[in-house]
Amino acid sequence: MSNVLEVNDVHVAFGGLKAIDGCSFTVEKGTITALIGPNGAGKSTMVGSIAGAVSISSGSITFDGNNISSLPTYKRAQEGLIRTYQISREFGGMSVLENLLVVRLGQSGESLINAVFRPKKSKAETNELVAEANDILNTFGLYRLRNEYASNLSGGQKRLLELSRAVMAKPKMLLLDEPMAGVTPALIEILGEHLLELNRSTGMSMLLVEHNLEVVDKICSRVVVMAVGKRLAEGTLGELRQNRDVVEAYLGGEVHERVGG
Amino acid sequence: MKLFLLTLGFGFVSASIYALLSVGLSLQFGVTNFVNFAYGAYLGVGMLLTYTFSATFGLPFWLSMVLATIGTGLVSMFISEYVLGPFVKRKKSLFYMLIVTFGLSLILDNILQIFYGVGFNEYPIGQSTPITIGPFSFTGNQLLIIAIAGVVMIGVHLLLSRSRLGKAMRAMSDNSDLARASGIDTNMVTRWTWFISGSLAGLGGIVLALNIVSFQTTSGDALLFVIFAAVILGGIGQTYGAMLGALIIGLVTEVSTVFISSAYKQDIAFLVLVIMLLVRPQGLIPAKGKA
Amino acid sequence: MSVILGYVATILVTFFTYNIFTLGLNIQFGYAGILNFTVITFMAMGAYFYAVFVMPPANASNQVFYILGLHWPWPLASIAGVVASGALGYLIGLIALKRLRSDYLAIVTLATGTLLYGLSGDNNKLFDGWAGLFAVNQPFQSVANNNPNTFSWIFVVISGLVMLAVWWFANQLYSSPLGRSMRAIREDQDVVDAFGKNTFKVRMLAMVIGSTIVGIGGVLTIQYIGALSPAGWTTGETFVVWAALLVGGRGNNIGAMLGSLLVAVVFNEGTRYIPQVASNPNLVPDLRNIIIGSLVILSIWFRPQGVLPEKKAKFFELPLKDKYAQTFGGSKADQDLVVEV
Fold first, then answer.
1. Which of A189, A193, B246, C129 sits most deeply, having the most CB atoms within 10 A of its CB?
2. Distance from C333 to chain A by nearest Cα, in Å?
3. In chain C, which residues have their Cβ closer than 8 Å to the Cβ of A154?
4. Domain spanning B2-113+138-279: CATH 3.40.1000
């Protein structure tokens, strides 16, 4: 039961193409686990099938002890499994603050009757959420932009918004699909620190798809390596550097340089 | 049984008309990835241009048909170039593209109405006596419709499978970014697609008018949802699916007249559309990433 | 004098009812991004069902046919009309609001509209075919002692009050968490889904609420005029509502009101009295439709947000808790935001 996520022999096929071909791995509760692998290994498809955006043809996915393989996307999120996207998908026509407010589940004003006829209760609730959201925005350095339209943010700011929005949803587990993609080195460091701090202070589990091995080294306790739709290896990054298959398939020269240097 | 076979014959005629129309709509959807809600008005353009050429200018009917078909294609290309194209270049969202074509349908319909009024028109050609072929019975015009549709379907097949344009259209239909990256002149392909789509709409409108004999400017709009039904049934954006969808819709709507009043036969197409969306929205032949 | 008074009353009732239609469409399109291409069909549903519930059984000797004829009191019949149009919205939603592209919903709305239009015209057993229903019971006619102006002005007040109620409702919804979910779905449905909201349910709510509101406008329309035939709800009428919303400002209820005023009243009514061209009696209405269609397209080109754009949400905010200093890297991130990516 110490595993928050168990992926068991999952297959995904698009037409004739096998995007995931019998992949299994686990994520231990309270850890940040990295999912790495060369392009086309099926990492994003894996995130999609865990989150429910991609349907699996066989195998099972267990989250927090429940088999979620056949649940629709929104029910998986209700269980506490929240994802972010490789390309930022902000609600462009809404303010940054509203982007955060909208994702919290269980607001009383989400029912029509409360929304229209009991606005006081809903407003009081919203005020509390605003304070909470502002705190998160402050943490991620977006506080002074809270009333800006999300579409007006820069690329890097949108990455920060993507993360703060996910945090606002109070997930048990975060699926992060290349959160550092297209981000400056300075911001990568900050994002990494945020994730680590979040994990330490709240015990939130994370599965992080990442190419940057420095980041992986710094914040992930375990690493799962995927190649051609399968799990190639699993372990700490140190262990994997000793693994011949992994080095050949993926880590390649890059590691030798670093290890050697 | 005899009645059933007779309606089956009419079913082939309707299927022929729908095939021209749904292939035209589907080709364009595949390449540009948005539904053209003004398509019904394009039928009216072909229908009425033919009327002008044959009844007003006194040209031979076959020539009027050819000119009107090309004319509708040009109108369609012109609209794509000067109205829809600029919106696409500004990367307007799907919402807005659909609203723009919807607004266009109102404009085109009313331009047609200014020139042709709201009354009914007929082509200046005689109605031949029906010819009996086995259990079926067709008028000369209906045989002509089936022949035209047959020739055009073969033409579309050759276009898609043999010509460079057709292959480029298929490539854009699968993935337009990839097509552009691999050196296809996507602007040119889009232009030709709108021309072909418009021509098929025009031709479809003409043969529709031949079949229903008296027609008005909005006859095409009333048929639009039947075409949608055929296209969705086959799998939206799938050319061969559209042919199959048209065949099924044509047969089902005509054969239904054995059981219900023929006034409601097109409503059966709506029923097919609803069932399809509930049961198999991706269509009989699903296209990648279009549903 | 009394002619002018009557005319002013008609203009006001037109404005109020069109504003109700536009508010209904705003909830569907402006809030939730739902493309309803047959707004006016919901008006007709409300009107027809009010009529067949309030009228006595059809009298075959007059060659007038319609279903039901229940002779209910008008308040109950009004509710029946409103429920009927909401129910149609629900049915369309069931067919097309599942996880499909927005094209499909637009197609289904348009197809339903075409189908019901043809059906109600061709089948004279439903709502008396192309002739339509007339002599429909009008509430307050007896109070007004059958004086047309008194009746008209009573109706100005009634429709004005209903419009205000709808407007209040739409505003409450807009700023609520439910309205926020709707707008987020308009921006990106998949993401809202991935955050655990049942987007089908939320979109269905927007669809049904919008349809119901348009139905309310339909009931008011037939109560005021006392008649409706298919000629009164052609596709062109749907465009008037769309043009009003797009010109006024989608997502903004005051914009919707301004749009109804400009398009449905100033433009539509203002051009109604241009004299007919003898050689082409349809020229003026045709040109009017061409302009309405152009308004729709041009407003998307030049000002998609409308004359009055959607307002940014404002919240009651307390100053930040003094967590700022303790937060690791908080200030650092703030500095680094100048780094453009």
1. B246
2. 5
3. 337, 340-341
4. no
